[in-house]
## 1
Amino acid sequence: MKKLVDDARLIFKCCCLYYQDGLGQQEICQRLGISRPTVSRMLNLGRERGIVRIELRNPDNEMFGQMERDLEQKFDLQEVVIVQSSPIQQRGKDGERPQMDIGRAALRFLSRILNDGDYVGVTMGLTIQSIVQSDYFINERISCTFVPLVGGIGESQLEIHSNYLAQKFASRFGGSCVQFFLPAVLSRKGVLEGIMKENMIQRVVRLYQKLDVVVLGIGIPFTESSTIFRTGYVDHEILDRFHRMGAVGDIALRYFDIHGDTKPFDDFNERVAGISLDQMKKVSRRIGVASGIQKAEAVLGAIRGGYINILITDIDCANRLVELDAGKVMD
C-alpha cells in the first residue's frame, strides 16, 4: 500500500473537500484517486494535527493551498498543485533545463494517483524530462504501462523525445512502456494517414483508448522556448506565422489559441503522428505541467479547450493565469 498518510498537502485537500465542500468520503476517493480507509485516516490526522479547527490551515503553505482551491473552483479543474517559483530556465552544462521543483511536484502527484495496471500517456519536451529526472524518491513499484502520445524519433535531442521519456517513466515506477517509432510530424497528411494504418503503429494507437492518465507538457510558439523548434520539426518562419495567427501554445505538438481553438492550425496539426486532442479529452485525468509567466496564456488556452483538467504549475504562472482570465492582461 502506498504511504500517503504523511502527505501534508493531500491531508489538507481531503479536509477541504470534506469540511468545506461537504463531499462524502466515497466522493473524495473518486476525486483524489485514493482508498476510503486512506481518506478516513487523513481526516483523522487533520484533526489530530490541528489542521481542522475553526478554519482549515494548510501546514505547508497557507497561501498556495488557498490559491490551489480557488483555481480548482474558478476553472472547474479536478486538482491544482502550485509550487514556489524559481527561474524557469537554469543554465547547466547541457544547456537550459526547466526548474526541478515542477518535476518533483509532478512525480509526487503521479506516485499518489497511479495504480497497478494503469495506462499512462506521455508527451515530449524539457518539462516532461524534468519530471523523470527529478530527485523525488518513489517508495514502491507501481506497475503501469507508459505510452508515447506522439512519434518518438527525430534528428536531435533524443532525450526529450516521447519514446525516451516513456522508457524513463517506466524505469522510475518499475513499470513497462511501448515505443512509437515514427517522426512526430510528417510532410503531408496523406503520408501520415497511410503509415498510421500499419499494424505495428496500430498496436500503439489502440492503447490510446485505454489511457487512464496523460502527462502533458504545454509548449509556447517562441523559438527560444519551443521544444518542437529544438527538435527540428518547425522553423522560425512557421513559428512566427503561428504566432501572428494567434497561437499561444501546443500540447502533444497540436497548436491552439487563447480560447483553445485549433482550427487555424489544422494544416500542421493534422500532420502530427500521435493522439488527437479530441481523443485525449476522453481521458479521465489530463495533467498539464507548466511554469513561468510566459506559459500562462498557453495554460489558459489549454484549460478553455478542455485539454487539461489537472494543473501543476508555479505561483508566477498561477498569478498571471488569474490576471489573464480576469481581463487584466490583454488576450
## 2
Amino acid sequence: MTAAIAIDGLEVIFDRFRALKGVSLEVRTGESFGLVGESGSGKSTLLRAIAGLAPVASGSITVNGKALGARRDKAFYREVQMVFQDPYGSLHPRQTVDRLLQEPLAIHGFADGEKRIERALDEVGLGNGFRFRYAHQLSGGQRQRVAIARALILEPSILLLDEPTSALDASVQAEVLNLLEEVRRRRKLTFLMVSHDLAIITHMCERLMVMQSGEAVENLTAAQLVAHRVTEDYTRNLLRASEGFVRTA
C-alpha cells in the first residue's frame, strides 16, 4: 500500500540555521499521525516543508506516491490542505465567509461552488446563516470551523494540522477535535497533526513521532505513549511536563 506521505532525509535551512536535520517519516493512507516536541523542535517546519512554505535543502517528500519538486502545483493543493494554528491570522478580516470559501473554488475552477459551500458549512456545523458574516463577527471556534471548511472544500485526501486548537478555549478545543475526528472518519482522510499537547495527540492519533531540535527522537504508537513505554529520556521529560504541577504537601 502506497504511503500517503513519505519523507526521507529532509533538511530545511533558514539563513544557515538547520531547522530540520535529516528527518524521515512515513504516514499511511487513512492514518492520523502526530508530531510532538517542545517549541522549536521542527514540528511546524516539517508541515510547512510539505506544503511548500519552507525551503527544502535536501531529502525527498512523496505524497500519494508522487515525488514533490521545489514548487507545488494546483494538483498538489487539491490533494493536500493545511489548517493553521491561529484562526485569527489565517482568515482575511475584510472578507465574508462566503468570499473566503469562494476563493479556492475559483482558483481551481469548480463550477458547483454554491453546492460545495453549503455542504462545507454544513459539515463543520455552521450552516448557511454564517455565509455573509465577516471573520471578526465570529468566535475563535467558529473561525477555526471556517478554516476547516475552507480546507475541506476542495475535497483533499490529506490534512496538515498545525496546532489546530491551541488558540482556542479548552471547552471549544474538544468540539473542534471531535469535528476533525468525525470528518476524517467520514471522508477517510489522512491527518498529519502537530501539537505540543500529548493528551490531544494520544486522543487523535494512532502513531506519533517525537522531535527535538530538528531531529526525530523516537517513533511510538499512542498506546505506548499512554503506557509510558518510551525509550528516550527526552520523551520521558515531555511526559512528565505534560502531567503538570503536582502539589506534594
## 3
Amino acid sequence: MRSVVTAILGGGQGARLWPLTRDRAKPAVPVAGKYRLIDIPISNSINAGIDRVFVLTQFNSASLHRHIARTYRFDAFSSGFVNILAAEQRRGDTSWYQGTADAVRQNIDRLVETDPTEIVILSGDQLYLMDLERFVRSHREANADLSIAVSPVNREEARALGILRLDRRRRLVEFEEKPQQDDALDHLTLDAGTVEATGADAEPGSLLASMGMYVFRTQVLVDLLNHQGDDFGKNLIPRAVTESDVVGFVHRGYWRDIGTIGAFHAASLKLTHQLPSLNLYDPDRPVYTRPRFLPPVKVSDCRIFESLLADGAILTGSEIRRSIIGIRSQVRSGSVIDRTVLMGNRSYGDTDENPLGIGHNCEIRDAIIDSDARIGDGCRLVNRDGVAYADGDGWYIRDGIIVVPRLQLIPPGTVI
C-alpha cells in the first residue's frame, strides 16, 4: 500500500448535526466517549498500511486541526504523514470548496506530487470500520478505473443516498443520486442473482448505496476533475459510469451516515450493546486517537448498566443506563443518566457554585450533553412533552433528543 494516498473529505458544514457543529467541524465531533469522528477514516487508512493521508478541511476547522496535530505524529524513520489541506484562496481562484469533487480538484496537485498509483477518497463524518487494504486489492484485481464502496440499505434510507445498480460481475451499470420515485427504486432494487454474485448481505427489496468512499486510478481521477461539476455523487460518478470501468466493492460490515442528531444519538447508544455491530475492541483494527494519559475511571456507590465509561470519569452515587460517559465527565450523587451521551470535558473545572458536569439529583434521558457543559443540581432533562423540535434557553431539541451545547450552563432546577 506504499503507493497509495488517502484524501479525507472533512470540509462539510454539518448543518444537520447542529448544534454539535456550532463550534467545530463535523469530523471533530466526539464519538464513543474518547474519539473524534476523524479518527475513524484515519485509523482505517493506517491499519491498511496507507500512511500518507490528507485531510481536506474548511468550516469551523480549528479544533479539528488541533486534534490532528496532537494525535498523528509519525517517527523520524517513517515517510508517513497526516497533512491538513485547508481551503484557501489562490491566484485566479478566490472561491471556497464548492462540493466534494471541487475540494479534491483544488488540491489535486498536492495529492499527486508523490506519484501514487491510486487515490482513496474517504468521508470524514461516517461511523464504520473497513479493511481498506482489501478494498484497494479488489480494485486492482478487477483492473478497474474506479471502485465504489457500497452497502445495502432499505427503500427509505435509499431516498437520501446515491443508489447504484451492479451487474453480476460487479460492474456499475447505473447510478442515481437520491432517487425519490417508487418506479426508480423498483428499477434499482437488488435481484437474487446479483445478491448471490456480489456476496451482499442484503434483505429482499434492498438497494445498494454508495458509501461516498472511492478508490481511483490516479490518472482517471485527474481526467474526471478536468470536467465541470463540483460533487462526486451528482457530477463525477455519473460521468464515470459512461466513460470509465467502474466496479462496486460490497462492504459487509457496519456503516452509518450519522448526519442528523437522531442518527448520531442512535448510533452512539448502539455502541453500548454487549455485542455492538461496530467492534471497537478488535486488536487487528484499533481506532487511534490522542493519548491523554488520564487516570482510571473512579466509581463510588453507583449502579451502571450497558454503558461506556471513558478515561478520567468520576461517578458518585449515581445510576447510569445505556449511556456513554466521555473523558473527565463528572456525575454527582442522586443523578440518573439514561440513554444519554456525555461528550466529556477538557478539564475537571473549578469548584465554583456551578461546577463542570452533572450536578446532584439530576434526571437526564435521551440527551446529548456537549463538552464542558454544566448541568445544575435538580435539573430534569427528559423532554416530558415528547417534542420533536424546539429551541430553548441554552438547549435544543432535535429529532426528540435534548441537546445542550458545549460550554452551556443549565441553571439548577431547570425542567425540559
